[in-house]
Amino acid sequence: MIKENAIDGWTVADLFCGIGGLAHGFVQEGFRVAAGVDVDDACKYPFEKNNNAVFVHRNVEQLTSSDLARIFGRSRRRILVGCAPCQPFSKYTAAQSEDRKWHLLRSFLRLVVQLQPEIVSMENVADLEKHVIFHDFVDALEEHGYNVTESVVDTWKYGVPQSRRRLVLLASRVGTIQLLPPTHSGSREKTVQSVIGHLEEIGAGEVSERDPLHRARSLTPLNLRRIRKTPEGGDWRDWPAALRLECHKKASGKRYEAIYGRMSWDRLAPTLTTHCCGIGNGRFGHPKQDRGISLREAALLQTFPRSYALYDPAEPISSKRISRHLGNAVPVRLGRIIARSIKRHIEEIDGRP
How does DSSP assign 167-231, residue by residue? Predict the structure, then answer.
């Protein structure tokens, strides 16, 4: 039960909620999350199980302000948060002038303008700020009475053990709102070893007897030879020529340094993606063991608590689905920092310590 404090009466709704990484940060800070909305119905079990909230299976483009008003119920102290799918704004698709998913950001704005919740937050890839659509988004919020701040943050400075840079927007109709200052310095940086080094050793294609999520994908004999030739922190450039892919022999292939790479124990993990458990998709090889990282390791690097239920135990585990869910998620720790920033703002406007 939430104790009586400055956040009593405030209700959170999460658009593009996924499995609930952002929402869970608010839960950890004592907020009431009413519901999450997402088009992927496979997110229903983990979102509802861990956040004591309703999952609404809906495309946000089809969500109306009346739908959202029903989610908030009688609450008149409303916080709307979300992370629209970021692929259209990443550096790999920056050359595209338009994408259907850009309409999701416009739908987010439409709902804000129509319902005018007191506080809004959006998290996305850092490159979003380079696009006109983002500046239109900010301008529209300001025109409707919001005080807006935006920050591109190195998430490791807030305790996320990845070299992940994200854009965090905070907007309030009841005062000036700011993201909290960094909580971690270089001396407190969380390394890969500090987060996953305690887990038992497993091989490629194996599953821990104690933890069904500590499972690693199988490797072909060729890829097993490749990872065995990859030193900690290394990549395909460390292989003999016979093991290299044809694309690596071309000038254009030299840009993809992280492909088939291993992480380093004493450094940050790379930004985790929806394919973060496959060694051919980035620097997702285990620092020492001859395999990609396991689902459990990915979850911990995304700062999900060990207790977070990521799958329905009544159904078979789908590694592909869970990997996708983890890669799409907002790290819980970043969600908590956003929630804590909003909590401080609420305490300030309520005049409470």
Answer: EEEEEESSS---PPPPS--GGGPPPHHHHHTTSPP--TT-B-SS-TT-B-----HHHHHHHHT--
Q: What is the pLDDT of residue 252?
A: 57
* Enclosing H/E stretch for 78: strand 77-82
Residue 1 lies inside a defined structural domain of this protein: no
Q: What pLDDT, in 10s, does the model give residues 31-56?
A: 999 999 999 999 999 999 999 999 99
Catalytic annotation present for 43: no
Whole-number average pLDDT of the chain: 91
The answer to whether the pTM exceeds 0.70 is yes
> At 55, is the secondary structure helix, strand, or coil?
strand
**SS3 state at 330:** coil
| Cα–Cα distance for residue pair 248/256, rounded to 1 Å | 8
Total tally of structural domains belonging to the chain: 2
In angstroms, the CA 82 to CA 247 distance is: 37
Q: Comparing C-alpha atoms, which of 67, 54, 76 is closest to residue 9? A: 76
Question: What residues contact 179, with CB distance under 8 A and at least 6 apart?
Answer: 149, 151, 153, 168, 170, 337, 338, 341
- Spatial distance between the Cα atoms of 233 and 202, rounded to a whole number of angstroms: 19
Whether residue 3 is contained in a domain is answered as no
Residue 253 pLDDT exceeds 80: no
Q: Which two tokens stand for residue 216?
A: 């690693």
Catalytic-role residue among 17, 43, 86, 277: 86
| Same domain? 175 vs 197 | no
pLDDT at 247: 74
Examine the domain organization and report whether 324 and 344 are in the same domain. Answer: no
Q: How many CB atoms lie within 10 A of CB 212?
A: 13
Higher-confidence residue: 166 or 7? 166
Give the span between the Cα atoms of 86 and 128, in whole angstroms.
8
pLDDT at 94 over 90: no
CATH code: domain of residue 51: 3.40.50.150
Q: What is the pLDDT of residues 290-330, one digit of tens each?
A: 999 999 999 999 999 999 999 999 999 999 999 999 999 99
